[in-house]
Design brief:
Blueprint: H1 2-16, E1 24-25, E2 28-29, H2 32-48, H3 50-60, H4 62-68, H5 72-98, H6 109-119, H7 131-150, H8 155-195
Helix pairs in contact: 1-5, 2-3, 3-4, 3-5, 6-7, 6-8
Length: 196
């Protein structure tokens, strides 16, 4: 809770000072500083701690993770807690950016969030993904949104284009995973043939 209050104070202070929405510190907007800090913390958490390996393991296969020794219920609970805290941080950031709250703010962001992580290399089945890939997905969708806005394409067609892009990504992922499964099956059959 103190972290959330610090973020509230920071974003309200940075959005209200000198009647500007953004304050620049050495050429970097102040809202980018805590986001960069969170990216660094989560990169270290996911790739260099037992908890991060547990997130990937439970996402890949719960029963195997339990057999290896991970506390699956604890890891799932912690993932929900961390996701909830990050939703609070995102809400505070949005309030600081727009200067107020709206009950329907961010109503269409679910599709964009799914598209971002899929573009970044995460899978629908779980067990894969990275912070760098997610940031890459954010940049790709941001550039796409800017290009579509500059082309004067309405928001409704922009949503259609994002949805089609998401379907193409899912279809490509299914095709690649089907090829990997068939190659693995051939290799297993070859190993069984050699051992008999």
């Amino acid at each position: 809770i103190p972290i959330v209050f610090c973020f509230c104070f920071f974003f309200f202070f940075s959005s209200r000072r000198r009647h500007t929405r953004y304050i620049s510190v050495t050429g970097v907007q102040t809202c980018a500083l805590p986001i960069s800090l969170l990216l660094a913390v989560f990169t270290l958490l996911l790739h260099y701690t037992r908890l991060g390996r547990g997130f990937f393991a439970v996402g890949e296969n719960r029963s195997s993770s339990f057999n290896v020794g991970f506390n699956v219920n604890r890891i799932v609970l912690l993932s929900y807690v961390i996701a909830s805290l990050m939703a609070v941080v995102a809400g505070v950031y949005a309030i600081g950016r727009f200067g107020g709250a709206d009950p329907v703010m961010g109503s269409g962001m679910g599709l964009e969030a799914i598209a971002v992580v899929l573009i970044g290399g995460a899978t629908l089945a779980g067990g894969r993904g990275s912070i760098v890939g997610t940031v890459t997905g954010v940049l790709v969708l941001g550039v796409l949104a800017n290009v579509l806005s500059l082309m004067s394409i309405t928001i409704w067609y922009q949503d259609v284009i994002r949805g089609v892009m998401l379907l193409v990504i899912i279809a490509a992922y299914e095709r690649v995973s089907r090829r990997k499964r068939s190659a693995l099956g051939k290799e297993l059959r070859w190993l069984q043939y050699r051992t008999t």
